[in-house]
Amino acid sequence: MVKLLVPFLSSKGFITLCSSRVLRPIATTSTTTTRVPSNHRFHIARASSSSSGYTHPKMESEYYTFGPYKIHHKEVFYSTDLSFAMVNLRPVLPGHVLICPRREVKRFVDLTADETSDLWLTAQKVGGRLEYHHKASSLTFSIQDGPQSGQTVPHVHIHILPRKMGDVEKNDEIYDAIDAKEKELKQKLDLDKERKDRSREEMTQEADEYRMLFL
C-alpha cells in the first residue's frame, strides 16, 4: 500500500511530512531488479574501497559542504549526483539523519526542480530503510526553512526521524527538540569543541551500519 505524503505547516514554522506505514522486510537475497527513474542515479557513500558496490570517483577523499562547514565523507552514508545523507552529531531519536543537496543552497525555494525532486526521492529511500532498520512504525520529515523557522545552518536539509509509539510524550514536542538540536549543532560546528555527545568514531560506525542498508 502506498500513501501520499502531504506537506503542512506546523505551529513551529516547520514544513513537515509524516508517514505511517508498514514496511515489508528487505530481502537481501532477492534477484528482483527495482526500476529507478532515469534522472535519479545514486551512489553508496563508502568509507572503504573494500566494500562491494559502486563508489563515487571522489568518495575516498571528498569532504561534503554543509553551509560554511565541511563534513567528512565517513559521516555520509548515501549520496546521489545532487543529494547526500549524513548521520547527525546530536540526534533527537535513534536514526535521526539529515538529507542535504550537494550544492550549497540556503532556502528551499532556491532549489532547482531537479534538486527538489532528487532531495525528496533520497529522503523517501533513506527514510524507508531507516524505519525498517530501527523497527519503527512511522517517520517524521521536517525542514526548517529560514532563520525565523529555527534554521541555524544556511544550507537546506531535511530531518528524518524514525518514530515509535511513546518516543516523545507529546508529538509536537519533537519539533522543539529538533529546534534545540539544530542550535546545538551550529554551536558545535562554529566552536569546533570536543564532541562529548558523539565522537567521530561513533558517527563513522553508525554511517557504516546505515551504508549496508543500500548494498
TrEMBL record:
It comes from the Eukaryota. It is an enzyme of class 3 (hydrolase). CDD domains: FHIT. The record marks Y175 as: Important for induction of apoptosis. Substrate binds at N88, Q144, G150, Q151, T152, V153, H159. InterPro entries: Bis(5'-adenosyl)-TPase_reg (IPR051884), FHIT (IPR039383), Histidine_triad_CS (IPR019808), HIT-like (IPR011146), HIT-like_sf (IPR036265). Residues 62-170 form the HIT domain. Its cofactor is Mn(2+). Keywords: Hydrolase, Nucleotide-binding. PROSITE patterns: HIT_1, HIT_2. The keyword Nucleotide-binding applies. Pfam families: HIT (PF01230). The active site is at H157. One of its GO terms (molecular function) is bis(5'-adenosyl)-triphosphatase activity. Its EC number is 3.6.1.29. It catalyses: P(1),P(3)-bis(5'-adenosyl) triphosphate + H2O = AMP + ADP + 2 H(+). A motif (Histidine triad motif) lies at residues 155-159. Gene3D superfamilies: HIT-like. This is Bis(5'-adenosyl)-triphosphatase. It comes from Davidia involucrata (Dove tree). The lineage of its organism: Eukaryota, Viridiplantae, Streptophyta, Embryophyta, Tracheophyta.
